[in-house]
Amino acid sequence: MNAGHHDAAWRHPDARPGGVIDPAHFIDLARTAERGHFDSLFLADGLALLGDARWNTVGGFEPLTLLAALSAVTERIGLIATVSTTFHEPYTVARAFASLDHLSAGRAGWNIVTSGNPAESRNFGYASHPEHARRYARADEFLEVVRKLWDSWEDDAIVLDRRAGRWTAEGSVRPIDHHGEHFRVAGPLNVPRPPQGHPLLVQAGSSRDGREFAARHAEAVFTAQQTLGDALAFARDLRSRLARHGRPADALRILPGLCPILGSTEAEARALEEELTALQIPEYGLAQLSGMLGTDLTGLPLDGPLPPLPDERRINGNKSRFELVAELVRRENPTIREVIARLGGGRGHRVVAGTPEGIADTIEEWFRAGAADGFNIMPPILPTGLADFVDHVVPILVRRGLFRADYGSRTLRGHYGLPRPAGRRHGDRREDQAAAASGAGPAVLPTGVGG
Amino acid sequence: MNAGHHDAAWRHPDARPGGVIDPAHFIDLARTAERGHFDSLFLADGLALLGDARWNTVGGFEPLTLLAALSAVTERIGLIATVSTTFHEPYTVARAFASLDHLSAGRAGWNIVTSGNPAESRNFGYASHPEHARRYARADEFLEVVRKLWDSWEDDAIVLDRRAGRWTAEGSVRPIDHHGEHFRVAGPLNVPRPPQGHPLLVQAGSSRDGREFAARHAEAVFTAQQTLGDALAFARDLRSRLARHGRPADALRILPGLCPILGSTEAEARALEEELTALQIPEYGLAQLSGMLGTDLTGLPLDGPLPPLPDERRINGNKSRFELVAELVRRENPTIREVIARLGGGRGHRVVAGTPEGIADTIEEWFRAGAADGFNIMPPILPTGLADFVDHVVPILVRRGLFRADYGSRTLRGHYGLPRPAGRRHGDRREDQAAAASGAGPAVLPTGVGG
């Protein structure tokens, strides 16, 4: 999140760029989001310094420690951390999220990603980067192990019988003895079962492998969609995959990113957008675009066209982001400078400049069309863009009956209207119980997003 | 820490055993310790469920997330987390501690350990456990990489020049390109240099390998010492090793553990000690002792002697704890029951039952003799044992001029009177600057200890 989701935000006078490494900045954002009854605060992540430190506010907090700190100064808002399955161990990750879920009394979520950047590999001893499909195979087994570890304690394992000297009931804490292709893990976990049973499982990659992973495991999907048509096609595809895995359509929330550039008039909003575009650093935009496209654009004229792009199959990083930009180029045939401007707000996520009513209209349109169960709100400038959304857009959504006027639940699963996974005690199955959530209301779900 | 450092504490009515997984318990402890102007709160750790869940309060928070949460609700107290070098990656660990140091504005410390328990290996894919010397060789290089990563950003790298579009100064954030025997790490870290330069480096193993590691790297050493003679011999040995590595004697603080069983009279203190002994669960004590001695004691008569012990060289786990128990057996020839009672308070750390004046006397005696620069206070029962120490022992130490009446510094290094390591900008050397600490006062350093 840092200074805002527009890549030039930090140069704008309303931004607080030093906040990238100041806990007070994030405490302020979390409290503002909680004041707006957001479901969650979401932190993106990478395991390397991604982006050029000269030109943008890169570098900052590690998500799990930051969200743990925020858990102590918030009451209701969900806390979603991105953690990769590529260079970590399942025991460590299961443990950290179980700990965060206990610290926050059931507000933790895990955005499960694979690490797609060669710079990340080089920080973990690898000369070349693990291949896309292989990363997802590892992620599948990783998640299997993590779930087993969360379930290695029964929900009511702790009996705390001082007189008899019994801390847990006999047999209620058991090894998992996992022996798989990628992992051998004995267990049990050294943390009691999380308050939510399992922290909420989120997924954010929209490639074919990513969609399949989401259809098998995820309960919420963050996705970048530029048009209503694309978003509808994505939602249809994902729901059909979900059905093929025997999961009901409401087992998963689809949350496209939305970067709202707000003004009290249309003209004011457009002026802010232009102000931000004018603050963009072309070298930075070119380097970012080169990374997204797997194509070195250095030295090309900004007002000329893009060169021919490689085939999607040759991309081993973020395949869905590549596809999004390639589609944009096919559709609009823009200059390089125009692409950089388009991607400035939210790096490929949808940017809408408008009045609070106009932003509420587009949210309502996508929601009613079935393209979104909610939105991942990515304010262009922080903290002002978040406060503006909470103060001016949220009340409109509440008036229209599209969003809650207060929290009706205490856990992240509760906010999303998702059930708590049953533990081992109830028959060793991983079926869902009836939804424990109450007051989840229509699933318009503004959340912050990291970066 | 959990319910207290006596292994039967959780059965005592003053304990709060459910606190093991309740953030409010730890917030209360941290605030009490801060009220007493303690240097730090220290959390021990293991990467498996160590100890039998049936008989004691095992399982709880992961230390980094718990301390991150406490950073948001405390102002001055240092936050020391135990993290192993055996099953983690240096990039991940460097990043987490840098993040905690920023979150706490310079209050983070890292207790650097190697994982010595076969149960830990089995959670990370290993059939057999890495050998003791090999673990320390890995730890050496691990620490080298972590320091390089912390130094990969210059202290003043962030220039935040909005007008020129400059976030960091050219060349102030650089790769480390480490290629060693155990690790290849490109860097730079994705967190700016920590406020303390490096979070405080702590070490807690007292074996020969552990002492050598401490002499090379550590700035504080936690150690279990049963007698003044042993503690003096340990301190002399460690200081001579320090000198051999060209480090001054005051580069390192020696902090023996102390479990104070307090009473308003000697008789009251002894009665509390006996009450706790009576609450011990023999099966639990026997299992713990079997682990410490690498010898299965199951089924042996509690009122008989210990069997012959293996040679120290055959121990691959915690060698120094083995040696401490073996020495105790040589010295006192106790029954198994007596050993279990002796180890109940603090698992091998020194237990002293007495009045506040008596406890202050033994602290002063060890400090003046040069056996301790401070103490790691391990209250037998929490939260009461900590509050009693803060309310009744600390004021005596303050009156005697042995301990601060208020914090005189804001960072953990400041509390310990240790210098801030210079960054790369100042000549690429890792020499210490003049001590930045003020008001550190005599180095009697009560701290909480984990478990």
Automatic annotation (TrEMBL), chains A, B:
Pfam families: Bac_luciferase
Entry binding sites for FMN: 45, 82, 132, 136, 206-207
One MF term in the entry's GO annotations: monooxygenase activity
Protein EC: 1.14.-.-
Gene3D superfamilies: Luciferase-like domain
Keywords, comma-separated and alphabetical: Flavoprotein, FMN, Monooxygenase, Oxidoreductase
Domain Luciferase-like per the UniProt entry, residue ranges: 11-371
Low complexity: bias regions: 434-443
Region (Disordered): 414-451
Domain of life: Bacteria
Membrane is among the record's keywords: no
PANTHER family documented for this protein: ALKANESULFONATE MONOOXYGENASE-RELATED, C2H2 FINGER DOMAIN TRANSCRIPTION FACTOR (EUROFUNG)-RELATED
Family per record: Belongs to the NtaA/SnaA/DszA monooxygenase family.
Name the UniProt record assigns to this protein: NtaA/DmoA family FMN-dependent monooxygenase
Annotated organism of origin: Streptomyces alkaliphilus
